[in-house]
Task: structure prediction
Amino acid sequence: MLHDSGCVGKSMADASIWIALVSMLSVFHITKAKDASGNDIEVPERFGDGIVSQPLPFECSITPRSEAAKELIINNPPIKLDSNPMFYD
Result:
């Protein structure tokens, strides 16, 4: 009897997304953007249409959580995909 086992890489993809998300949240404060008077700019509830609905772009504020986080960000720039040892010619 055959059955659909789903995507064999789903668990790895889910874990990779989770690691990326918690890594960002551990070093950044992500909050509402502020206007010139210092008031919060509300995030509009606007979504794109299509097969997968997602929020349309909106303004936000992304700042380092601490000086240590800022140093971590500055001293560890993103790697280039072509320098990733997981990709071979």
The helical segments are 10-27, 67-75. The radius of gyration is 19 Å.
